[in-house]
DNA sequence: ATACTGATTAGAGTAAACTCTAAGTCAAGG
DNA sequence: CCTTGACTTAGAGTTTACTCTAATCAGTAT
């Protein structure tokens, strides 16, 4: 069981963000006898999943949708599957785009290096 | 030579955005005798490059920096090279992350499908 | 006792990147 | 003549995702 500060540290996010996610109903931790938030291992795993989705540009609104389907229960598995499949398609498209741009940058970088080395060769006495 | 409306259509962005990019000094088109913006092929190519950078999450502030180095002239090639190399490193890291999450989603999706098909098998008379 | 640490809340503020509105002017085409 | 589409400046509004503030309280350290 972790406090909000411990979770923040562990996952490299701020306590502000954790409270924001709770306000948005993305994660609802338990509370201890003082009313302080308590996160267990399954909360942590869910947060790690959320962070992965975020790193791949899934908007908070979609993550919220997915989280609320979870709360609704087992009859939403098909809808959840749909969301994941949709995001997977986005990711695969994004990978293609990134590879394209990576190639484009590689060519530009080579051209710049070439230009710089030629310029250097032209002014040997500088 | 293209008008702002033609460029917007061609590149799938709005005229507002093109004016905004001009305000931010990312692209400075020519003007015709009426003072209307005129974009030539090299403007178009530069805009296509900007859009590619944006698709790969380069912030407008960085694109601005790169554009202003261009305007400053040839002595900024090293700085430009640096910016491109930095963004290339970001992209390559991002590709790794996307591949990881793609795998993770694949596993989740398989698990969901498995669950759904097992549930269907349990209730053959539904 | 009191200062420090870390927790709580509601709600305000911020940054990025547009996106649009107002309130006009101007020129060409049908 | 009227519509369309361009132009201007200045500024307001929107969305996303935080990020921070203020005021308060509970437990521990000196």
TrEMBL record, chains A, B:
PROSITE patterns: HTH_MERR_2
Keyword DNA-binding: yes
Keywords: DNA-binding
Stretches that traverse the bilayer: none
HTH merR-type domain ranges (all copies): 1-69
Record Pfam families: MerR_1
Keyword DNA-binding: yes
Signal sequence region: none
Top-level division of the source organism's lineage: Bacteria
UniProt xrefs under SUPFAM superfamilies: Putative DNA-binding domain (SSF46955)
PANTHER family: REDOX-CYCLING DRUG-SENSING TRANSCRIPTIONAL ACTIVATOR SOXR, TRANSCRIPTIONAL REGULATOR, MERR FAMILY
Stated name of the protein: MerR family transcriptional regulator
Native organism: Brevibacillus porteri
